Amino acid sequence: MLKGHLDAILLSALEGGDAHGYAIIETVRRRSGGTFDLSEGTIYPALHRLEQSGLLESRWVTPETGRKRRVYALTPAGRASLGDRRSSWFSFSSAVGQLLGNLG
Amino acid sequence: MSALITSYADALRQSLAFDPHAAERLAAEVEDHLAEAVANDTTHQPSEAARRAIRRFGSPHDIAAAYTREHFPLRVQAALRFALPLGGLVLLSMWLRNGLAALPAIAGPETAERLAHADDLGFRVAIALTALAWVVSRLGRSGHRLRTTVLALSGSAVAATVSVAAGGLLAAASLADQGLSATTAGWSASALLSVVLLGGLIHQLRILKGYADLSATPPHTPTGRTL
Q1: B12-64, pLDDT tens digit by residue?
Q2: Is B183 helix (H, G, I), strand (E, B) or coil?
Q3: Do B29 and A41 make contact, defined as CB atoms within 8 angstroms?
Q4: How far are the Cα atoms of A86, B43, B133 from residue B106, in angstroms, in the given order?
Q5: What is the pLDDT of residues B161-214, one digit of tens each?
Q6: Which residues on adjacent β-strands are paired with residue A70?
Q7: Count of pairs with CB atoms under 8 A, one residue in A, one in B
Q8: Which sign does the torsion angle of CA A31, B42, B223, B1 carry?
Q9: Is the ipTM value over 0.90, yes or no?
Q10: B-side interface with A, Cβ within 8 Å?
């Protein structure tokens, strides 16, 4: 089930500002309280796909450490898509919560 | 940079060698990621930290396969975005040529007419198959539909080859018979456009085949992770 929400998780990790792949994984790990420990190898193919779909944009930057890295940012379309996914998720989770609550 | 990381990135480049641009970008990002993981690992020696970071990443083959699975549909769309407009341009050039340039003389009028027919028909079939590929690709992104799309594009390349061969023969015949003339220019221009389209189509198909083959391979390293 979580795999179907990978795109939303990645988009939300970039909501607070631009970041590179390593930082995105750390953000997801931290904000989920360690629950979502993303498989590092799956992140980059997904980030590239989101970029080609127009939801993210990226650029090479060279920080003070001297190692150039690719930094990702949400596009306006990505921000809109995140809003839609968030609404869908809250509707879904609320409905499931009510259902499970009633059953319990 | 650790030799282990460099070697890992090279293996990743090798796995995606059929798409050098994607391979280079992905390998560069993964190299940076692993180097940062090593730099942030304060509990192990750098070589051990690199080994651990690489183990977490999985095999280069699996990363490349995951990449092709994510990108195969987008790659198919990119191939179609290239082929359809250029195909339309070639059809337009053929239409103009047929209206403005005479049929070159080659081993009798019947042979010339047959070659011209093969040129036109081959290209119409190529365009029809490319359009079919576009329709199938719009119906969904299942592996079966994507393979059908690639098959239709391959058929399109075969039909375009027939067209290019026939049109090229007529352009050469015109050049030999009349030298530089309006007829030679007409037949040569459309043949040249067809060659460009065919070359591009074969290039795209070579990349798509790499994506299709790799995305269908099973993982090298089984993983129990959720994401």
Answers
A1: 999 999 999 999 999 999 999 999 889 888 888 888 999 998 988 888 998 99
A2: helix
A3: no
A4: 68, 79, 35
A5: 888 888 888 888 778 777 777 777 777 877 888 888 888 888 888 888 888 888
A6: A60
A7: 77
A8: positive
A9: no
A10: 22, 25-26, 28-30, 32-33, 35-37, 39, 56-58, 62-63, 66-67, 69-71, 74, 223, 225-227
